[in-house]
Design brief:
The complex is a heterodimer of chains A (322) and B (253). Chain A is an alpha/beta fold. Chain A contains eight helices and 18 strands. Chain B has 253 residues and is of the alpha/beta class. The chains are: A alpha/beta (322), B alpha/beta (253). The interface between A and B is large, with 99 and 83 residues. The complex binds flavin-adenine dinucleotide (FAD) and adenosine monophosphate.
Chain lengths: 322, 253
């Protein structure tokens, strides 16, 4: 069988859950095996109901220690579900949490781990996947014949599944958690700015670089434009290092990887480490005062100019459009 | 106490990587210690320098040429080095099993692993190593402080950052922000060149995953420059995004 681990926030499934449903359905069809979802959390019942509209069987693990998510508790729950249900393939999201328990689950199951893939399929009985390597410049084809294969799927890489007609069943699953699963004690959490679309789920991303010169200018121009477009806000490492924006907004090798329909890189030079987090975007726009900035090499549309003039002009042009 | 810091040698970020007939071509690439691993070396050194009685052991995994990366760590100030010879393309689970043996032999209390490898783009080694050892792990760590065998760490999660408390042993994966790695001094580089390395070969079991091909990911881009002053370029951009690329939804806010 094919098992997907559906992550959720604020009582609703994350977009990644529906991306995994789509991948899971294709694998289930190709292998003629059933599809099931696993939902773990402190009170995941509403999420289970939501998923039952997409997947024939939803298994639920409820424990207060699962929120905030602890890697070792998640590992125990996913391993238990995979073994009890006899899963050949376990699909987990390539979120920070999925990438934290994914390798542990694979190791404990004695299986393979195909990491942060952009595509997954069956070829005969092999599980085959594509994954970005070398700062997302080379896609490697990876393949496994293992009895159990854990696959983490890059956020935003796959289309979300359309709603299925089936009304799935919801099952409670008891997991024998051990004391050591709770050995790390979560303390205070700092949340990223509320109310804005999550960066990995955004259809449009506005990213600002060091060229804005100050956190005030970044706030006014980058955040202002993002809010007008209903877009996610991104930042370069230089901006994060300067303390203008939180780490959670950083895009690149050591930040988030996004693939929106439209990516606006404003006063961003285009270092390889930054490109690796945004080069799968469908359309890229660059605004930079330096005509030789490397970002223009990957841009679909480029404007050589001062962002402090071009962004207000863009706001005006967009306002004129409404 | 003993602190291990795991090292990998990767192509320098500016090196060209290409695909020729389905296989990877790294001709002319310069190989360096992975920048993400430097944070682990640096943090081990800082803990030692803070007065904790600690030995910092640099452990490299990879082809014999990885000795260069290991010597960089020695030049930064690591006390000792181990080089586990394996293939540059061994998958992280395989590497984790091999390194778990070294961690046990060394009776280490704390292990640093780079948060994300610059060649395999992988963040799996840290959690996999912790699992192989039945230890806890903290990933994407931006702060890590010790008080006896109790630690407090801050790390990145999906929606922000989180504080975690626990006790050693633990595997910590690094992230920018953890520290600013030091540069080795010339005398230390010379000294590191003469230091003996404890070299062993990895015992690798059956591979559960194989790499069977490579393709370039770089997409064709339009690369159209929009001319004129800010106002006309911006107006042209909006028109192109709406009518040509069709990526602007009509309900602007
Ligand atoms: C191990 C490692 C990991 C890294 N990970 C990441 C990562 O995840 N994400 C990331 O972004 N970086 C990362 N980096 C850093 C990366 O190499 C670059 O240093 C960084 O991306 C530069 O950010 P920037 O483009 O904002 O700044 P700069 O490179 O300083 O570029 C600023 C640009 O703004 C332009 N400019 C200035 N003023 C104006 C103006 N008024 N109008 C228009 N344009 C203007 C300039 O021409 C310049 O091109 C990493 C580096 C290392 C070593
Ligand atoms: N991270 C890496 N990725 C790809 N190739 C590497 C890497 N590290 C080292 N190499 C290559 O592997 C060669 C040595 O291979 P070997 O024959 O296994 O000793 C080096 O000269 C490098 O060209």
């Amino acid at each position: 069988m094919i098992l997907i681990v559906a992550e959720h926030a604020h009582g609703a499934a994350r977009k990644s859950a529906f991306e995994l449903v789509a991948a899971g359905r294709a694998l289930a069809t190709a292998s003629g095996s059933p599809l099931a979802a696993l939902v773990i959390g402190a009170d995941p019942s509403s999420v289970a109901t939501e998923l039952a509209g997409f997947v024939p069987d939803v298994h639920v693990v409820t424990d207060p220690g699962l929120e905030p998510m602890r890697s070792e508790m998640a590992t125990r729950a996913v391993v238990h579900a995979a073994e009890t249900l006899g899963a050949r393939v376990v699909l987990v999201p390539g979120s920070r949490s999925g990438q934290s328990y994914g390798p542990r689950v694979a190791m404990r199951l004695g299986g393979a781990y195909l990491e942060d893939v952009t595509d997954v399929s069956y070829e005969g009985s092999d599980v085959v996947a594509q994954r970005p390597t070398y700062l997302a410049r080379i896609s490697a084809t990876v393949r496994s014949q293992a009895q159990r294969v854990v696959v983490s799927v890059k956020l935003g890489a796959l289309a979300v599944a359309p709603l299925a007609d089936a009304t799935g069943r919801v099952h409670q699953l008891d997991v024998p958690f051990a004391d050591e699963d709770r050995r790390l004690e979560p303390g205070p959490r700092e949340a990223a700015a509320k109310g804005r679309v999550a960066l990995e789920e955004a259809d449009v991303v506005v990213c600002g670089g060091r060229g804005f010169g100050s956190s005030e200018a970044f706030e006014r121009h980058v955040v202002g434009l993002a809010d007008r477009l209903g877009a996610g806000v991104g930042a370069t490492r230089a901006v994060v290092d300067a303390g203008w924006r939180p780490y959670g907004e950083q895009i690149g090798q050591t930040g988030k990887a996004v693939a929106p329909s439209l990516y606006l890189a404003l006063a961003v030079s285009g270092a390889v480490q930054h490109l690796s987090g945004m080069n799968r975007s469908r359309v890229i726009v660059a605004v930079n005062k330096d005509a030789d900035a490397p970002i223009f090499k990957v841009a679909d549309y480029g404007i050589v100019g001062d962002v402090l003039e071009v962004v207000p002009a863009l706001e005006e042009a967009l306002a004129g459009r409404d | 106490m003993k602190i291990l810091t795991i090292l990998k040698q990767v192509p320098d970020a500016e090196s060209r990587v290409r695909v020729q007939h389905g296989s990877l071509d790294l001709t002319g690439a310069t190989f360096v210690l992975d920048g993400m691993d430097e944070y682990g070396v640096e943090h081990g050194l800082r803990l030692r320098e803070s007065g904790i009685d600690a030995e910092v052991v640099a452990v490299g995994y990879g082809p014999s040429s990885t000795d260069q990366a290991v010597r960089t760590a020695l030049a930064m100030g690591a006390d000792r080095a181990v080089l586990v010879e394996g293939d540059a393309f061994d998958d992280p689970l395989t590497v984790a099993l091999a390194l778990a043996g070294v961690v046990r032999d060394e009776a280490a209390d704390l292990v640093f692993v780079g948060g994300k490898q610059a060649d395999w783009d992988s963040a799996a080694l840290g959690p996999a190593l912790a699992e192989a050892l039945a230890w806890a792990h903290v990933d994407w760590t931006t702060e890590f402080a010790l008080d006896g065998d109790a630690f407090e760490a801050v790390h990145d999660v999906d929606d922000g950052s989180e504080t975690l408390r626990g006790r050693l042993p633990v595997v910590v994966t690094t992230q920018q922000g953890l520290n600013e790695p030091r540069y080795p001094t010339l005398p230390n580089i010379m000294k590191a060149r003469r230091k003996a390395l404890d070299t062993r070969s990895a015992e690798v079991g059956q591979e559960l995953m194989v790499v069977t091909g490579h393709t370039g990911m770089e997409r064709e881009r339009r690369r159209e420059m929009l001319e004129g002053d800010a106002r006309s370029a911006a107006a042209e951009l909006v028109r192109r995004l709406r009518d040509e690329a069709k990526v602007l939804r009509e309900e602007g806010r």
